[in-house]
Amino acid sequence: MMTIEVNEKVKRELSDCYILGRLADESDPDRLPPLGRERKAVTISHRNENNAVFYLQAISEEPKILREIGKHEKECYVSFDDFNSRYLQSIKYYDPSNTMEDKVQLLHKHLEGKLILFKPKLNFRNDSTTHKYHYNFEIVLVSDDKVEANNYVAIPQVKKGVPAVRFERSLLDKAPIQIPYYPTHMEIPEFILCDGYLYFIPEQDVFISGNNINLYYAQKPQVIKKLAVSEIENFWSHVKSPYREIGFIAASYASNLRDLLNHRGTHLVQTDPLPIKKEEK
To answer: Distance (Å, rounded) from C-alpha 57 to C-alpha 77?
Structure first.
């Protein structure tokens, strides 16, 4: 296997990626790392009886480099309550009346069956020659949306305030476009939102990444299709765990959107972009 260098810069960049997850499945306890008293998704930590350890399973695309360094798609992400104290304060986890057993039950109840948006945190480990890294995480938000699918597809948005006409001009001119919440460590996005339009990128080689981790260049803009979101029935009801400029849809709904865009979407090259107003330059 090719050796992949994961330096401090790359580790910081990875922590700007967003992954949708769920609480790890307890029906297969052998997949849960033995870091707690019990092989459960939330339990008291072995290392410190005053901490809880808990595990998440990714259900959306993960950064490419994690696969390249050997992470299995079923391998859990691990974290501890003290690494997520900012979020846990919002659910009264640290109420003085809570025992550790209370905290474990509270956290499990809060996370079970829900969609969890998190950032991956890659850390080196010194206790194993086989596994070089800890796959940790930081919770961003826990959605009221329930887990209704095994896989979800990210739909990022271009930089806020960019009108569709400017975005399309950049695509056709093969100029850089910025997608703030979707670093180039991820696979090329299949769908992108901009100014009320959904853009369908049918092939991975349509885009290449730039020097900045949030910059992309269209190499095959002629294959991109678009459709007004207003023409997609109940689109927003299918977008789960929206956070700033990224959201997620179930893989089955993504399949429906592919069919819809293939049949009703229009190619960018078929319509000349409108002239850009002076104030938009």
So the answer is: 6
Mean pLDDT of the chain: 92
The number of beta carbons lying within 10 Å of the beta carbon of residue 263 is 9
Q: Could you tell me what percent of the chain has a pLDDT over 90?
A: 82
> Residue 236's Cα: distance from chain center in Å?
18
Measured in whole angstroms, how far is the alpha carbon of residue 41 from the centre of its chain? 21
List CB contacts of 208: < 8 A, sequence separation 6 or more: 216, 217, 219
pTM of model > 0.85: yes
- Cα separation, 153 vs 61, in Å, equals 7
Mean pLDDT for the stretch of residues 259-274: 80
Q: Are strands 152-156 and 77-80 parallel, antiparallel or unpaired?
A: unpaired
**Residue from 223, 251, 12 nearest 155 by CA:** 251
Average pLDDT rounded to a whole number, residues 205-233:
95
109 phi-psi bin (left φ>0, alpha ψ -120 to 50, beta other): alpha
